[in-house]
Amino acid sequence: MDTTYAGIMLVVFLVLAGLAIDVGYMYIGEEELQSAAETSALAGAQAIKQRILTQIQTDPKNIRGVVNDPVQSSARAAAIDLVSGKHAAAALVGVASDSSNALNDKNDVTVGFWNVSTHTYTPGGAPVNAIQVRTKRTAESESVGMGSLGSFIAKISGIETFNYTPVAVAAIPARTHANIAMSVDACGSDCIYPNICSIPERKMIRDYWDTKKDPPAIDRYAFTSLLHPVTGTITLSDMICKEMPAQEVCGKAIFTTQGANNDALRDMESMMYDPHVDKSNKEYDKATGKLSGWWVIVPVTDRPPAKQGDSYELHSVARYALIRISRICVSGTTGCIQVGGPYDAPSSICGGDGNDGLYIDRISCVGCGSQSMLHLPGLQPVLVK
User: Fold this and answer.
1) How far apart are CA 245 and CA 223, in angstroms?
2) C-beta separation of 186 from 321 below 8 A
């Protein structure tokens, strides 16, 4: 009797032990697998962005061939390389790809179109601006904890293997974290994405603009804190130097100012010439290694600020502009204080106080809510699902 009772209790104990081991592993593993899916998707989206930006830099007329490619092999490779063989608890993370755009037993990666208006992802959709990654444990997960004994105990209790397969989607929606805004006059009728206009280097200024007397404000810009007002504790300099997250501001009102001095422009100069900041969106001359431009997406407002000085005005964003800043030149003290700095524009490209300013030489615009807006690639990958 005692022996029978002891035997029953031993079985109960072993079942509970198996459940504790596998259930505990389930929660730990699920969190780690989800994290792996997210980081893998972000790596893939970064590769998609980089391929598009490289095409824009080298041969923008053929950009459709890049964004309509349903395979995106470099993005798949980046996603897989980031997580394959890495450990989640004691198990390895597995991500497989057969270059298709349907999740199945042999494929854990799809590329497709993320619609910023409907917040939906279409595997295989074009233009490609997103990637979906599913992670799973490899066969090594069977030896976690008590090894095969732990899994066997869980199975005899009626519970099979915990097959968690988290899925994440990362995309490159058009957003901005630039702290400058341009006027709608800066966008020519021909420079609508996917047409990237190469223009004679244009010096942008913040002079007062009279709507009745002055010509179209194609060369006007203003500083902006985007959706967040400047306060006593968070200054415009803080926003520039700390690289705030990209924001969706199209169709919304943003805070703009002409600025009484060039302090904010000095900060932007420091960020442009710091090789560690936003480096994937900076373009370098292949022959000399020198910086030739910084690609940014900027908000385009209905008109420049009407008031001079440091006062802020709310202006509605009517468009986005993808621009290449060719140089920023500001005399005087250095802006943002950064590790390894200070960073200023080389004197060889500025040549004196008379050249102080912000210069652009590429531009492409999209209207808020337009089809082009849906297709404009962003410059910062984000998780969307």
Assistant:
1) 17
2) yes
Secondary structure in 3-state letters for the chain: CHHHHHHHHHHHHHHHHHHHHHHHHHHHHHHHHHHHHHHHHHHHHHHHHHHHHHHHHHCHHHHHHHHCCCCCHHHHHHHHHHHCCCEECCEEEECCCCCCCCCECCECEEEEEEECCCCEEEECCCCCCEEEEECEECHHHHHCCCCHHHHHHHHHCCCCCCCCCCEEEEECCCCECCCEEEEHHHCCCCCECCCCEEEEEEEEECCCCCCCCCCCCCCEEEEEEECCCCCCCCCHHHHHHCCCCCECCCCCEEEEECCCCCHHHHHHHHHHHCCCCCHHHEEECCCCCCEEEEEEEEEEECCCCCCCCCCCEEEEEEEEEEEEEEEEECCCCCCCCCCCCCCCCCHHHHCCHHHCEEEEEEEEEEECCCHHHHHCCCCCCEECC
At 14, list the tokens: 């072993």
Domain ranges of the chain: 2-171, 180-383
- Over residues 315-356, the pLDDT tens digits come to 999 999 999 999 999 988 889 987 777 899 998 898 766 789
89-142 pLDDT, tens digit per residue, is 445 788 999 999 999 999 999 999 999 999 999 999 999 999 999 998 775 444
Count how many Cα atoms sit within 13 Å of the Cα of residue 305 in the half-sphere of its side chain: 24
Query: What predicted TM-score, i.e. pTM, was given to this entire model?
Result: 0.85
